[in-house]
Amino acid sequence: MPSSSLASHGNTSSTLSPRVTFVLLTSILFTYVSASAAPTPLYGVYRDAWGFSPLMLTVAFAVYAFGLLASLLIVGSLSDHVGRRPVVLGAMMVEALALVLFLSAQDIGGLILARVVQGIATGAATTALGAALLDVDRVKGSVVNSIAPMVGMAIGALGTSLLVQYAPLPMHLSYALLLVTLVSLGIAAYFMPETVTRRPGAWGSLRPDLRVARHASQGMWKVMPLNASLWMTGGFYMSLGPSLARSVTHIDTPIIGGLLVCALTLSAGLVILILRNRDPRISLSLSSVMMVTGIGTTLIGVALGQALVLFGGTLLAGIGFGSGFLGAMRSIMPLAAPHERAGLLAVFYTLSYLAMSLPAMLAGLAASTIGLTYATYGYGLTIMVLASSAGIRTLRARFKR
């Protein structure tokens, strides 16, 4: 049974049941995450076609996160006031615009503009969709919020890689398919019931504010060091992964980079399904160990030029990523009341995407000056130190109890 009743006053004509609503929200969230990862395998194609520098590639990667962060800060908690449905529908319109911009891009400037708009749309949608899923079913919603980034990135990265390799119109087909899917889901979302009661303060919520309720903030800050290492890992594989895969395997095709991203995200999604009903403290403890082991193995694979070691380390890092993200979500989200969920998610994702984007941008700059290999070592070792320190803190806290 859903953990909260649906407040349909904002959409009294809705005939969608809670179960159908949950499936629809899940589908929209997966589509958003898939779309966010779709450009990654195409960066090499864009460079070959438009001839821009590695620095501009780094910019194209980073502006998405900056657009998303700006959106989170401004409209992240808006759905707590005006309702989930209008924010989701508005964000879907902006995402559709981003996909049209991808389809019409003729140079790196067009690509950067599309990524900025896409980041804005994703930031607006992420908190509203995540909160709406928790409104409908708090237990299943936590699982979906944890698994969607993993499986969605895998679908987007690998799906686009396959289309680039085997289908016509490599720079356009994936975006066209995503646009058709988004429009179809948008039509269905129009009939979606509202899940929260509107309350005043909408205009005030647009002021950037990283504060959350005290009873939730304490739990969030406890898991944030480990969570930062998780999202740094995501940035590591999303920014440097495709180049590392081509360098180690000597296979110059977008599929190999997509497979490396899939190794990370699918193993993360699998461990989330396995641990979804376990104590979140178990997930957090497992995460620290697997993050250090996985990133260390990945670096060994790079040093030895061994593809199997590289991919094996990525699988282990994915286990750490998935278990840690699940543990973090399940630790903090029950602390928030329904009208606080979107705001808490906005702060949580703001800090998470900062941890992903800033180190990834620095690594991209470092790769262009000191080389890909040394940039990889520095980035990976930083993640290992942060994950280790977070794991030690967790063990000390449990020992004191």
From TrEMBL:
Keywords (A to Z) from UniProt: Cell membrane, Membrane, Transmembrane, Transmembrane helix, Transport
Tagged with keyword Plastid: no
InterPro entries the UniProt entry points to: MFS, MFS_dom, MFS_trans_sf, MFS_Transporters
Name of this chain's protein: MFS transporter
Keyword Magnesium: no
Membrane topology: Multi-pass membrane protein
Cellular compartments per GO CC: plasma membrane
PANTHER family referenced in this protein's UniProt entry, alphabetically: MAJOR FACILITATOR SUPERFAMILY MFS_1, RESISTANCE PROTEIN MDTM, PUTATIVE-RELATED-RELATED
GO molecular function, one term: transmembrane transporter activity
Lineage: Bacteria, Pseudomonadati, Pseudomonadota, Betaproteobacteria, Burkholderiales
Chain segments annotated as transmembrane: 51-75, 87-106, 112-134, 146-167, 173-192, 220-240, 255-275, 282-304, 310-332, 344-370, 376-395
Organism whose genome encodes this protein: Pigmentiphaga aceris
Domain Major facilitator superfamily (MFS) profile residues, every copy: 20-401
Subcellular location(s) of the protein: Cell membrane
Domain of life: Bacteria
